[in-house]
Amino acid sequence: MTAPVFDLDAFLPYRVAMVSRRLSRIFEERYRDRFGISVAEWRVVAHLAQSGAVSVREIVARTDMEKSRVSRAAARLEAAGYVAKCTHSGDRRLVELTLTARGRAMMTELAPIAEAFNAEIGTCLGADADAFRRALDRLFASA
Amino acid sequence: MTAPVFDLDAFLPYRVAMVSRRLSRIFEERYRDRFGISVAEWRVVAHLAQSGAVSVREIVARTDMEKSRVSRAAARLEAAGYVAKCTHSGDRRLVELTLTARGRAMMTELAPIAEAFNAEIGTCLGADADAFRRALDRLFASA
DNA sequence: CGGCAATCATTGCGATTGCAACGGCCGCGT
DNA sequence: ACGCGGCCGTTGCAATCGCAATGATTGCCG
Is B4 in contact with A49 (Cβ distance < 8 A)? Predict the structure, then answer.
């Protein structure tokens, strides 16, 4: 029985997962205490701030999250008063998600925090930042 | 009420999370059907193949996974016959995890699959592969 | 030598997730 | 006009996760 040799540190999916987890965790610490939202909810809010009124399906297509995850995140955000849900006029299957005034206020506070964190990452990467972004784009496109 | 503007696509934690999720998903498809293990269990097995007999705590420190996640993954692996658990002689608090013959056989089959997948990613990245690896190392070190 | 804080692994519990099934709604074809 | 297949969002259910508490064991320090 040969002893299988495998270098886990060189395995890129593992490395990416570790970094992803840490980045999300660090960023989450900067807004969870203040607003009490989770990562899934942050993504929905950020997407709404970017795109205005959109349906659940659009967020699903755009963020690669499960339908149910988006649906429940939207429900929690609605319960917390950050998001309003109303049925689309014309196609009553669709749900139009919109930021409430409270949601926009949160985003006004959150956007600079996110930008700052993003900038931190950029400076941390230094000269490799552009290559890193390119690599992410390529992996996302081909995966 | 100003409309908050934020470009989610430029937000690196988000991009990394998307790519991480996709890579893990794709790789998982290549072994889940054959061996019925999950990502957490794969990580434990890969680490055992690399490090021999180790305790739960070492895997936790090394992989940045929660104690309970590693513990349960080890329990599932033991139930499936891939891993053996025995108390460390000398310090009976520690649990020594070891690959069984069946576990080593699985790893013998899995290692080439992982290597191939890793190589695919490398070729996909092309000239940016080295910078990508450097960037991951730097983010991991500073996070 | 004895107690006591610390370490290690497990487990209970609440929350979240993914998958699949479902109910409501649309639009196409007839 | 009317089914009927398909799309959209929600929900039931099982599994997993994270966190905190617990049980078991060790090593330190008085």
Answer: yes
